[in-house]
Amino acid sequence: MFNEFIQSPCGIVEVQACEQGITAIRFVESEASASVPSAVTTKACEQLRAYFAGELTTFDLPLAPAGTLFQQRVWNALSDIPYGATCSYRDIAEAIDNPKGVRAVGLANGKNPIAIVIPCHRVIGANGKLTGYAGGLHRKATLLELEGAL
Fold first, then answer.
1. CA 28 remoteness from chain centre
2. pLDDT value for 132
3. CA distance 130 to 120
4. Which of these, 102, 50, 82, 74, lies nearest to 149 by C-alpha position?
5. What is each CA distance from 71 to 24, 52, 54, 85, 150, in whole angstroms?
6. Average pLDDT, the chain
7. Are 18 and 61 in contact (CB under 8 A)?
8. CA distance linking residue 134 with residue 118, whole number of Å
9. d(Cα 105, Cα 131) in Å, to the nearest integer?
10. Which domains does the chain have, with CATH numbers?
11. Pairing mode, strands 2-8 and 11-18
12. Minimal CA–CA distance to 78: which of 101, 56, 54, 106?
């Protein structure tokens, strides 16, 4: 396993990877371990810095998130939400041909291990309100403001 940390407007971000690609991007309270960088973690950190600087709107990284088939389908649908746009959990449920699976989509969204790059922060409530975000609603708001979606 490889990892690297960056400072962001939302706090410290840890990027984790295996040989196949990025396995996790998450907000952490501190750099709890020494970095063990790889080419892919370094590339991810460079792209994240560019994203936070407002210079990058689309990531180009190999991803290797671990999850169930259903979670993978949800995460793939999340990846289709354009920069600066938002959608509802119902929109994602319909996108994966499971219109009654709104709650399951919400649960899968919350299990997304690759924050920002798989943009679960772009999913909001059907009423337009910000809803749960594993990194905290203040971070979700910051990311959406950065993208011009709020």
1. 14
2. 82
3. 12
4. 82
5. 14, 26, 29, 21, 27
6. 95
7. no
8. 13
9. 13
10. 2-53 (3.30.160), 69-147 (1.10.10.10)
11. antiparallel
12. 106
Amino acid at 131: T
Identify the three-state secondary structure at position 84: coil
Residue with tokens 């290797």: 64
CA distance 146 to 51: 9
Instruction: Tell me if residue 87 is catalytic.
Output: no
* Catalytic member of 10, 45, 87, 120: 120
Q: What global pTM score does this model have?
A: 0.93
- Point out the residues of the chain with pLDDT beneath 50: none
pLDDT of residue 128: 87
DSSP string, 40-93: HHHHHHHHHHHHHTT--SS----B-----HHHHHHHHHHTTSPTT--EEHHHHH
Greatest C-alpha distance within the chain: 44
Tens-digit pLDDT profile for residues 103-140: 999 999 999 999 999 999 999 988 888 988 888 899 99
Tokens 């991007």 correspond to what residue?
25
Beta pairing, strands 123-124 & 87-88: parallel
DSSP 3-state of 12: strand
CB contact set of 10 (below 8 Å; sequence gap of 6+): 27, 135, 139, 142, 143
